[in-house]
Amino acid sequence: MARRITTITPKVLTQRLRTLERDGLVVRTYHAEVPPRVEYEISDLGRSLAPLFSALSKWSVNLEEVERARAAYDARQRNRRG
């Protein structure tokens, strides 16, 4: 997975994965090999979030409208100040 993620540092990725492991959303498996290897997989609890992520994915078609609303809001704020 780390090879495909380019916008997060290894340190931050490790911190996030440990948090997800602590929350029970992922399972970490350590392999005592040379070099050592660690695998992460989504737990059953993590998989239970699939409907939520599906709904968010479907809703994301609205992001352009959100950006338009932000731009309109920012323009109104600038006009009030100026």
From TrEMBL:
<dbReference type="GO" id="GO:0003677">
    <property type="term" value="F:DNA binding"/>
</dbReference>
<keyword id="KW-0804">Transcription</keyword>
<protein>
    <recommendedName>
        <fullName>HTH hxlR-type domain-containing protein</fullName>
    </recommendedName>
</protein>
<dbReference type="Pfam" id="PF01638">
    <property type="entry name" value="HxlR"/>
</dbReference>
<dbReference type="InterPro" id="IPR036390">
    <property type="entry name" value="WH_DNA-bd_sf"/>
</dbReference>
<dbReference type="InterPro" id="IPR036388">
    <property type="entry name" value="WH-like_DNA-bd_sf"/>
</dbReference>
<keyword id="KW-0238">DNA-binding</keyword>
<dbReference type="InterPro" id="IPR002577">
    <property type="entry name" value="HTH_HxlR"/>
</dbReference>
<keyword id="KW-0805">Transcription regulation</keyword>
<feature type="domain" description="HTH hxlR-type">
    <location>
        <begin position="1"/>
        <end position="68"/>
    </location>
</feature>
